Amino acid sequence: MQADKKLLKDLTPEIESTSTTWYITFSVFLGFFLLGIYGLIQQIDKGHIVTGMRDNVVWGFYIVNFIFFMGLSYSGALISGVLHLFNTGWRKPVIRMAELITVISLIIGPFFIFFCIGRLDRLYFLFIHPRIQSPITWDVIAIITDLFGCFIYLYLSFVEDFAILRDYEGLQVSPWKRKLYKILSLGYDGSPRQKKLLSNAKTIMSVMIIAIAIIVYSVLAWIFGVTLQPGWHSTIFGPYFVIAAVFSGTGLLIILMWIFRRIYHLEEYITKRHFVNVGVLLTVIAAFYGYFTFSDYLTKWYGSIKMDSILIDKLFNEYYLLFIFANYIGILLPAIIIAFPKFRTIPNITVAAAIAVLALWVNRYIIVIPTLETPFLPVQDTRAEWIKYSPTWIEWSLTLAGVSVFVMLFMLISKIAPIVSISEMQEQDTEEILK
Amino acid sequence: MKGKDPEKSGKSSRRGFLKKMSAGVGVVTLAGVAGSAGMNHESGTKSGVKIKLLSPEGKLVEVDKDDIRPSREIVAELKEEARKGLPNRKFVMVIDLAKCKNARKCVDACQEGHMLPKDHEWIKLYLLQDDNNTSKYWFPRPCFHCDKPMCVSVCPVGATYKRADGIVLVDNQRCIGCKFCMTGCPYSARVFNWKDPEVKLPEGHVYDPETNIPPVEGTVGKCVFCADNLRKNLLPRCVTACPMGVIYFGDLLEDTVTNGEETVRFSKLMNDRAGFRYREELGTLPSVFYLPPTQRMFPVERGLDGYDENIKGRYEKAGPR
Questions:
Q1: Do B134 and B189 belong to one domain?
Q2: C-beta separation of A139 from B171 below 8 A
Q3: What is the pLDDT of residues B243-301, one digit of tens each?
Q4: Which of A34, A251, A402, B195 is a plausible cystine mate for A357, CB 3.0–4.6 Å?
């Protein structure tokens, strides 16, 4: 398989040589990661007493991060699946990033569960003593299914690129990398039959991962939804979580587009058009997400159910800054910035996306924590310092470590594979010429 | 209370109640003996001395003396039996809110009996007030041992389970510490071992979910209705420790409950005193019933007399809700 040399050079800037910036950036994030490891060792050594979690707020940052990263993952799957299925023309430079978001955050997410559970050494009990009644068991099955599905989908999209890299004589890489490309390309030579098979497989997988992503994220929402707790016991939690996830994933996609465009000089491939298109997608999703949020809180606020009133009261007083940021600024501001064409510049859209992602994390926080601080029986006969949740440095360090691993995995993948699909871009060129 | 004639009030005595309990326990012990007798027979060690026993089916059997061991000796048997529960029993508790004055003896007895760290309470005392216009009252809350327990539904590994006698237990050698049961329980009845509890165990102690001793770091614990005591014909520790006789315990199938001083008909008590369950609307069907705090024996405020700031501070924010 032959590839356009310029395309190859532009889209694989880190494969042949490694820049100093790469090393510096990587070291910084490695440092954050090691700090997290140190925190984790502390936690394993001294017990969960070192976290801010106590008997009322038994789930803290870890669960928030878990649902946040899983949300990013499922949304990456949804975005790439939908764009592929509908054969959207402009998707080609950005679809690879969405796929990578999916797989990388899917690897990171479950680690936050491992940090949260008290007996990590008994994790395998989930498999040897499973109880199908428990939503956690549903989640275990769902996440494993999703992991396989997403890996297959991502791999399928990589096969052609590996074949291109294998066949490109001028590539200055070490022999092990060449060998790797040879193995990973599975003998793909671009014959019409192979092309058709691969294309069919990708279409089938894109449909499957859309379905899997929706089911899996609903299952995660039901961990909260099936309980009797005020604020969690809601019938709309499944779809609400799904739409919120897509919101965060779209936002992250914009941020990554901006970063890669800047550091790898992809201005030619990722244009303003892409930012505007993904941005409009974000706005549409923001509208749905805002509608779900409003609907959920309105019904709780309007009625007179005691526990709902107490919870709403807490959100509107103790948590009002976070509430306003997550549910007003975080939804309205991105929508407004992107809705008006004159605000639609690349930096503006990126800022809007960053606000959206951050606000969604906060939204997760005010779903999990205030409810746990509002049990049916008032929090009494307990230690004063156990009443209110505030994360310790250990929880912060592990959160930071999670983000660092996300960045580091992206950087490592950019060392062996193109971050923008070469094969898809080539196809695009041919299509444009044919027109 | 003590002066009351149990015959006159139409209630059976405490001794009668315990006798009935012992009948149930006896069956279990024999079942264990019969089972272990069979096992030892195969290994072939014999003393030659035969002893006659009554089997659970009512048959007289002859077994070798060496084959007889206490039924709950082996750890595996302990755990297996702790999952089944006592046969033909349905334990219930009735808490008389009119009598409670926050003496906290139940808390102490529970902590001592189960070797709990001092910051762990399996039974907590709440100072509740339903509305501005209604009165405050003390509200002891053990685990409710619900008949539709959320904690059991959501447990992913079957570490927490419901037994035939109505008791909900936690096997802390199975628990993975996901804390889903803690978010599932609407009554905040569960506690987590955030650090190593550092319990000094007696020599030769074996773990039994019925006592849940020792508590294990990273797992969940909660009130066990003193399932170990029930097996030994004893009342739960909180019941016997309460100086006011607030807590009644008994068997729903026998329709009797006792607080250690008087034994009463459960149905009559519910009927006469308008017994209720906390937040019935949640549908978890608790095994713990309450009697309303009417004509209280003590003013609510006196419940805090004599306690240090630590305890008093816990109730500072108590108010209508």
A1: yes
A2: no
A3: 999 999 999 999 999 999 999 999 999 999 999 999 999 999 999 999 999 988 888 88
A4: A251
Q: Indicate whether B101 and B177 sit together in one domain.
A: yes
CA–CA–CA angle B136, B140, B142 (5° rounding): 150
How far is Cα B279 from Cα A348, in angstroms, rounded to an integer?
A: 51
Of A49, A56, A116, the CB nearest to B188: A56
Answer yes or no: is B41 within a domain. yes
Q: Which of A114, A128, A134, A141 should we substitute to test contact with B (largest number of B Cβ atoms within 10 Å)?
A: A134
The answer to whether the CB atoms of A118 and B191 lie below 8 A apart is no
Q: Give yes or no: residues B98 and B209 share one domain.
A: yes
Query: Of A421, A413, A294, A391, whose CA–CA distance to A39 is shortest?
Result: A391
The answer for B 156-215 residues in CB contact with A (under 8 A) is 156-159, 174-180, 182-184, 186-188, 190-196
Residues A68-91: tens digit of each pLDDT: 999 888 878 888 888 888 877 777
Asked, for residue B169, whether it belongs to a domain, the answer is yes
Q: Are residues B294 and B223 in the same domain?
A: yes
Burial class (CB in 10 A: 0-12, 13-18, 19+), A301: middle
Q: What is the DSSP string of A129-178?
A: S--TTSHHHHHHHHHHHHHHHHHHHHHHHHHHHHHHHHH-TT----HHHH
Cβ contact, residue pair B314, A381, below 8 Å: yes
Residues of chain A with Cβ-Cβ distance to B157 below 8 Å are 122, 125-126, 129-131
Task: Give A261→chain B minimum CA distance, Å.
Answer: 41
Q: How many residues does chain A have?
A: 435
Domain count, chain B: 2
CA distance B254 to chain A (A): 31
The residue range of the domain holding B307 is 91-313
Residue B99: give its domain's CATH number: 3.30.70.20
B285 close to A (CB below 8 A): no
pTM exceeds 0.80 for this model: yes
The structure tokens listed for A305 are 């159910």
Helices (H) and strands (E) in chain A, counts: 16, 0
Please indicate, yes or no, whether residues B19 and B140 belong to a single structural domain of this protein. Answer: no
Closest CA of chain A from B6, distance in Å: 37
Q: Does B155 touch chain A (CB under 8 A)?
A: yes
Are B43 and B168 part of one and the same domain?
no
Q: B126–A384: do the CB atoms touch at under 8 Å?
A: no
CB contact under 8 A, B217 and A228: no
User: What pLDDT score was predicted for residue B106?
Assistant: 94
Are the CB atoms for A409 and A72 separated by under 8 Å?
no
Q: Are B212 and B297 found together in one domain?
A: yes
Closest CB from A59, A306, A381 relative to B183: A59
Predicted confidence band at B309 (pLDDT cuts at 50, 70, 90)?
confident
Asked if this assembly's ipTM is beyond 0.95, the reply is no
User: Quick check: is B8 in a domain?
Assistant: no
List the single residue in B158, B194, B315 with the smallest CB-CB distance to A49: B194
Closest chain A CA to residue B319 = A378
Same domain as B261, residue B142: yes
User: In which band, very low, low, confident or very high, does the pLDDT at A429 lie, cut at 50, 70 and 90?
Assistant: low
